[in-house]
Amino acid sequence: MNKTICAVLALLCALCLMLTACNGRDGQPVATETPREQGESFAEGVEDKDFSTLHTPGSQEAAYAYQAFFLPAVDGISQPYVGDTMPYYEDGTYYIYYLKEGGDSYNHSIYLATTRDFLTYTEYNDPIIESSRGGGQDGWAGTGSIVKVKDEYLFFYTGHASSDTYEYMEKVMLARGTTPTQLEKVEDWDITPPAEIGQKRDFRDPQAYYDEEKDTITLTVTASQDGVARILKYTLSGDLSTITYDGVIFTNTAGNFWNLECSDTFKLGDKYYLTYSAQDDTLWYAMSDTPYGPYGEATRLDGKLFYAAKHVESPDGAFMVGWARRSESPSSTSEVSGWAGNLAVQKIVQKENGELMLAPVESIVNQYTKRRHLNVEEDTVTVQAGARFNYTDVFTAFESFLLKGKLTYTGKGCFGLAFDYNGQAGKYKLITLDPTAQKLQLQFNEGSTLITEAGVQLEAGKEYAFTYIQEGSVGIFYLDDVSLTVRLYGVSGKPIRLYAENNVVNFTDLREYTK
Length: 515
Known about the structure:
Blueprint: H1 3-22, H2 57-63, E1 81-90, E2 93-101, E3 110-115, E4 122-123, E5 140-149, E6 152-160, E7 170-179, E8 182-185, E9 203-211, E10 216-225, E11 228-237, E12 243-251, E13 260-268, E14 271-278, E15 283-288, E16 299-301, E17 306-314, E18 317-326, E19 338-350, E20 356-359, H3 362-366, E21 370-371, E22 381-385, E23 390-396, E24 400-409, E25 415-419, E26 429-434, E27 439-444, E28 449-455, E29 464-471, E30 474-479, E31 482-487, E32 495-500, E33 503-514
Antiparallel strand pairs: 1-2, 2-3, 3-4, 5-6, 6-7, 7-8, 9-10, 10-11, 11-12, 13-14, 14-15, 15-16, 17-18, 18-19, 19-20, 21-33, 22-33, 23-32, 24-29, 24-33, 25-26, 25-32, 26-27, 27-28, 29-30, 30-31
């Protein structure tokens, strides 16, 4: 056999090998997408929960195994929910006290779940502080906080009277103990609203801080004066024998809010911060150069579905711990307005100018290690649309997943993620970026029903990075320095599409991961 024939045969063999690599067993072409991250491989044959027989949003919700977005265990046939959170950290453990709504909880008593990583939680079955079943000043237990003073734990909480026959509808009350998991109510100790504020009804959510050097406890309390929402400050001696009212440290000037719930104060770097959830609104923060003010104008964080969040610090950083709002009915396509929901945690990041932003928790992100194939062959998708919505099927809504990518746009119309609800485009649930309104929004019914929104700065031609995490029906979307918590019932096992209208949007480096 001459050299020419040998060379031809070698070339034919090489071509056969190339064709085999590029085609499946049935001879059809297969995806040639190659992971860009070094050492990353696609997940093959990974079992996922089958949602094909779960036809209703309620049946899907009942099937979820929540972990990072903690939900209390079902009590009989009743699903309890996480209300206002009161986080505390000690020796590697985060103690997340919360008002438990429903189930075996009497008048949303205070319960506890602990975690070391925000991924898995240990739930305590019995209440830490139970609302008084016989009625009284704490017929309803309300939000508070725990602080360690020397060798004792002091839990200041709201006592909301069981009827309006009491002189004070709300007082600050106290429980104490030698461990953070076993506390006893203290009789005949309370703080009543100061006469200066001229009302006896709204006086709640005490947040305590201990100064070891001075042996004093600083207590902030939310209240109103002359019909204006305010935050008050007290100084208590370490032995609780003296209580001094220091006056108002913050007065609401943004919006017509009658209460600033779950206030918290803390220091990051050389700045001091005050956070609160404005009644029926969002999480806000104000900044100061000195402790307890004076504060500048308040700014919103996230949207209405991330509520009652307070901060907690550990060697791993500073975090906001709150709850993700739920719908009154999972089948509703018009509201997400129910009180209490799933536990939600986001990391606090301080920008160079002192402003705050919320970011994904690293431990939550790092659990998503299985890269999934997209529903398109490439990791770059351009969506071009006129006045009508244009959709491209790209991702799949697994029980728990993470999406990431980058985007640029050139027009003025909306774009984002579209979640299939019932196979009809008119019912799609959208996470929308609106350049004209400068908003990041959650919309139902293909954009006709606004659920929640956050302000965002968008500029045509500029590249943005996004990350989206969803577990069960709870999701949080991050675009650079903005976050939006969402609730998406009934979308599991269905496509997630990229969409646009009156715009040209280029999505690149698209990835989807599961655990």
